[in-house]
Write a structure and sequence with these properties.
heterodimer, A: alpha+beta, 2 domains, two-stranded antiparallel sheet, 27% strand, B: mainly alpha, 90% helix, 0% strand, rod-shaped
Chain lengths: 376, 358
């Protein structure tokens, strides 16, 4: 039987769901520190760190919101309970439809907030319920968790399934061109992993790109429609270069925030599995988060004829001749940097086992006090 | 307003009516119970007719909701149109193709690059969400009513036990009095003293009164026990009917949720794989043509060329895999639809013949 949702793991009870979110919260907290650390290792530029931190904090808010939504999963006597599904194969994150569902909830959030009683009122009712009935006020707790969830959807800056491109001016070039930073992020629907894109563009157009009502919306839809992890960077950059004659993508960078491995929640194979199962004696030690950065840089430009009297500039990208993809092809990026974030204990075990294939990965090790150190 | 939206509106109204009817019926049962507790004569008149009415309306509502779910199928047919468009040339592109195949290809690729089905997926999720909420709401009401009636029945059963116990008690008392009366009558028949005889007769009269009272009480209790029994029977039928309805609701919800989940994953995988297969090889080739003239990298070129071919072949194979995969999923879906179809045979038939309101 082919079941498309086979590798989706529903978290059935409240305890499990809470543990999952607690773990996630902790890991994302470390991520912002790791992001600061990456500049010293020349993985990410100084200017890009605030952007990354923005996305990471909104990602954290998204998880907080989802954790409110599923706080009482399986405890309310609702026969068809709504439980969180995560992708346990090579992702560890909630599945993409959960984020679509959240966006759908957000549309109706204000209506829900109007109909639900206030938190103060709910708490008072809870106290009364406890005193009068001598039992846990489950229904009221559920109402409160939903109220907090919708409140989050309205107030917080969240990471959505699609986060549309934003553009910032990065200076003028001598040749009369302007330089722009464009960044956007998607929750990749195939991998179920948040992916952040950063692009440096030179603009030789007449009007400034962010104020150009003709090009900017087109650029946005084009980039969003092309943000799929299945597409190589060179494919995305080429397509963009092709479709916009006066925009020249010089550098494109893609950051995969994941997958998250955890012995208790996800299935993994290979050496990492052994490391995590060894470390799983304490649940707070059994995780690792992979964080990989792909970079594509234009090495030179060529002029191409597009009409009788018209020539446009096209970029030629430098591809890494050594980096081979698992299925044998050449990678579509200039450089790949992979790093692994893991707690001290797991790192210790990884070093002792010293499995092949992990030597070139940068490891960020988190101490129990939250300090992050980086090792090669 | 689209057909689906008006259908949803209709279903919402029906659910509301059905919930009213449910409440009315449960209220009747509860009212009968409170009358009984107040010591009144049990006047329950839970007509079979009204139960039938509730059930008939529920059937109608389920049928309409099943139709709604089938209607969602029609909405998703829009996706396949998108996929077809991604696979083939548009009218303008085929026209251009007469003059330049290359130009037509590049136009199509440009179209592919901006194609996105995310908003359609969002729409699908929100529509299915509306229907799920509707069903969930109804399911909750059903469960709540079932719980209320069950609780009610429980205490009624206790009452009935008490009534039966009293009845037994009365019967025992009657049996007890019987020999006493016979003994007294015997005594009266042999008594000759008038004063003593009068005294005995007074005693007998008192005993007789007590006996009659007991017999009357017995009859009352028998009637009460019978009424309670009838009440319990009715309650049980009602709970059965509620549970049956809840089961139907769960089949509907299950079908809808599974379908939507699978659809979202499937459509997404299909559109992404179409996109990848269309663009990836071309982008690599073009970039590599550029790179090929690059002096520095010339040495690596031969290897890259063969690798590119291999990748292209793999890409196409992978795409084929996706298509096979998609077909399998569709077959699987057809199987899972069977259970649904068995339950809602007539609606499916009507849907297939496209005979709404015709």
């Amino acid at each position: 039987m082919v079941d498309l949702t086979k590798d989706h793991l529903p978290l059935e009870d409240a305890y499990e769901t809470r543990r999952y979110f607690a773990k996630f919260d902790q890991i994302i907290g470390h991520l912002t520190k790791v992001a600061e650390n990456t500049t010293s290792n020349k993985i990410v530029l100084d200017t890009e760190v605030p952007i990354l931190q923005d996305y990471l904090s909104s990602l954290s808010a998204t998880f907080t919101a989802l954790s409110y939504k599923h706080l009482l999963a399986g405890r309310v006597s609702n026969l068809m309970a709504n439980v969180l599904n995560i992708d346990r194969q090579e992702s560890g994150f909630p599945i993409f439809p959960e984020l679509l569902q959240m966006a759908n909830d957000a549309i109706q959030a204000n209506r829900h907030l109007q109909s639900l009683p206030s938190l103060k009122q709910l708490k008072q009712e809870m106290v009364q319920h406890i005193l009068n009935e001598h039992e846990v006020p489950l229904q009221l707790q559920f109402a409160a968790s939903q109220r907090l969830y919708y409140q989050c959807l309205v107030d917080q800056n969240l990471f959505w399934a699609q986060n549309d491109p934003q553009c910032s001016w990065d200076g003028d070039l001598s040749s009369g061109r302007r330089k722009y930073h464009i960044h956007w992020a998607v929750y990749d629907s195939q991998l179920n992993i948040p992916v952040i894109y950063l692009m440096d563009v030179e603009d030789s157009g007449y009007r400034a790109l962010p104020r150009d009502g003709e090009r900017w919306p087109q650029v946005q839809t084009h980039l969003m429609a092309q943000s799929s992890a299945l597409l190589e960077l060179v494919t995305i950059a080429r397509g963009f270069d092709q479709d916009f004659d006066d925009l020249h993508p010089k550098k494109l960078r893609r950051i995969f925030v994941g997958p998250m491995y955890s012995h208790s929640f996800t299935q993994q194979s290979g050496p990492l599995r052994d490391v995590l199962s060894e470390a799983s004696r304490k649940p707070e030690w059994d995780w690792a988060l992979a964080w990989s950065v792909e970079t594509l840089i234009a090495s030179r430009t060529e002029m191409q004829r597009t009409g009788f009297f018209k020539q446009v500039e096209r970029q030629i990208y430098q591809l890494d001749p050594l980096m081979k993809l698992p299925h044998g092809g050449l990678s579509g990026a200039t450089a790949h940097q992979r790093s692994l974030i893991l707690p001290q204990r797991a790192y210790q075990i990884l070093e002792e086992m010293n499995p092949p294939g992990f030597t070139n990965i940068r490891k960020y090790v988190v101490s129990p006090h939250g300090r992050v150190l980086s090792y090669r | 307003m689209s057909a689906l939206e008006s259908q949803i509106k209709k279903a919402v109204e029906e659910v509301a009516t059905s919930q009213q009817k449910l409440s009315k019926f449960t209220d009747q049962i509860e009212q009968a119970r409170s009358e009984f507790e107040a010591g009144q004569e049990l006047s329950i008149d839970i007509e079979n007719a009204s139960l039938d009415d509730v059930n008939a309306h529920t059937d109608l509502m389920s049928a309409n909701i099943a139709e709604l779910i089938m209607g969602l199928d029609d909405v998703t047919a829009g996706f396949s149109k998108d996929f077809d468009a991604m696979r083939s040339y548009s009218g303008w592109e085929s026209f251009i193709g007469f003059f330049s195949k290359q130009r037509a290809d590049s136009l199509r690729q440009e179209r592919m690059r901006t194609a996105s089905i995310e908003d359609k997926l969002q729409d699908l999720i929100s529509k299915s969400d509306v229907i799920t909420n509707l069903l969930q709401d109804q399911l909750n009401t059903l469960n709540e009513h079932a719980a209320r009636v069950e609780k009610n029945l429980e205490s009624t059963l206790v009452d009935r036990e008490a009534t039966v116990a009293t009845l037994e008690d009365i019967k025992a008392k009657i049996l007890d009095i019987d020999p006493k009366i016979i003994a007294l009558e015997n005594k009266i028949s042999v008594e000759t003293d008038a004063a003593a005889r009068t005294k005995l007769e007074t005693e007998l009269a008192a005993l007789n009164t007590e006996y009659n009272a007991l017999v009357q009480e017995e009859q009352v209790k028998v009637a009460e026990s019978q009424t309670l029994e009838r009440y319990i029977e009715k309650g049980k039928t009602w709970v059965d009917s509620l549970q049956n309805q809840a089961a139907t609701q769960m089949v509907l919800i299950n079908k809808l949720q599974t379908d939507t989940k699978q659809r979202v994953v499937l459509y997404d995988a299909l559109s992404k794989s179409l996109k990848t297969a269309q663009q990836q090889d071309v982008a690599h080739r073009i970039n590599e043509i550029g790179v090929a003239t690059d002096q520095e990298a010339q040495a690596a070129m031969a290897a890259i060329g063969s690798a590119t071919n291999q990748r292209m072949a793999e890409m196409m194979e992978k795409h084929e895999d996706h298509m096979v995969f998609a077909r399998k999923v569709l077959e699987e879906k057809a199987k899972s639809d069977e259970r649904f179809a068995r339950r809602f045979e007539k609606i499916v038939e009507k849907h297939d013949k496209n005979a709404y309101g015709a």
